[in-house]
Amino acid sequence: MATKKKAASSTTTLALWQEKFMASAKAGAEQLKNIGGGGTGIKFGHGTIQVGDAVKKDGKIEVIIVGYTGHNRWFKGKYDPSETTPPDCYAFSAILGDEAMAPHPAASDKQSTLCIDCPKNAWGSADTGRGKACANTVRLGCLLASDIDEAKDVAGAELATAGVSPTNLAKFKSYVNELADRAASDGGPRPTWGVITQIQSFHDDKTQIRLEFTLVSDIEDAAILEALEKRLNKVQDTLQQPYQATAEKVKAGARKKFAGKVPAKKGK
User: Fold this and answer.
1) CA dihedral in degrees (123, 164, 47, 195; nearest 10)?
2) Pair 157, 63: CB distance under 8 Å
């Protein structure tokens, strides 16, 4: 969406959205209240952002954050971002946060009945430092602002998913809360899907990658807002899709299943 382009929309029509904005913005802030301490479409690097195969060397991207979900993940071995092996235990939370989070039924090695009671989700459980062995993250579901010029573009726009690391959660929470608490004189409360957001990635000596979330502009086209609202539930479903087992895990499972069951060769 070109940030300078605004489709005509009457003040009266937009005013009808304010009540929806207020409810959705507050719900979004509440959603993050108890979360923590991906999708792979968007990857944040050391001052760069990769969208699919394209690398943005300025480290900036403008998006509409259509949805997000809490995401806990634990690996038996050391986490390697270059690997595609699924976490051994993982969980999602849409609204209720940590108190309701539980390992996903598809997780291969569940560590607890509830995340809140899990020793891997306790401070100090990490192999090094005072952090958690289980990473408390957030999955974002984004539409590229450049893909949306009018309402008809929303339904077909590709959803890009990205992960906000534990060290960047505070930044994201703060941004969501700022939108939710915005004064009427500044446009009133907005959920993340009611605005265009710039995400910028920086190299950080302490945390490796530091993210900044900045408001670019409000979305003022009522037809676009209506189209975005229709995608909300589908986006949340997408963000909570279970991991697919890697080919190696599938093969290992097959070998274990059929071990000792190979029929004996018939004599000639």
Assistant:
1) -140
2) no
| Structure tokens belonging to residue 117 | 């009671």
Residue owning tokens 């003040």: 11
Counting residues of the chain whose pLDDT is more than 90, the rounded percentage is 50
153 with 2: CB under 8 angstroms?
A: no
Report CA-CA distances (Å) from 166 to 41, 134, 172, 193, 202.
19, 10, 10, 22, 15
136 in Cβ contact with 35 (< 8 Å): yes
180-188 CB contacts, 8 Å cutoff, 24+ apart: 180/25, 180/26, 180/28, 180/29, 181/29, 182/25, 187/218, 188/18, 188/21, 188/22
d(CA 28, CA 94): 10
Helix (H) or strand (E) holding 91: strand 89-93
pLDDT digits (tens, 9 = 90+) for 126-152: 888 888 999 999 999 999 999 999 999
Q: Tell me if residue 114 falls in helix, strand or coil.
A: coil
Residues 186-221 pLDDT 10s? 889 999 999 999 999 999 888 889 999 999 999 999
Rounded to whole angstroms, how far apart are CA atoms 89 and 71? Answer: 11
Which of 22-26, 57-61, 246-250 has the lowest average pLDDT? 246-250
Alpha helices by DSSP H, listed for 133-208, are: 152-156, 169-180
CA distance 101 to 95: 10
Task: List, in order, residues 6 or more apart from 156 with CB less than 8 Å away.
Answer: none
CA-based torsion, 163, 148, 233, 20: positive or negative = positive
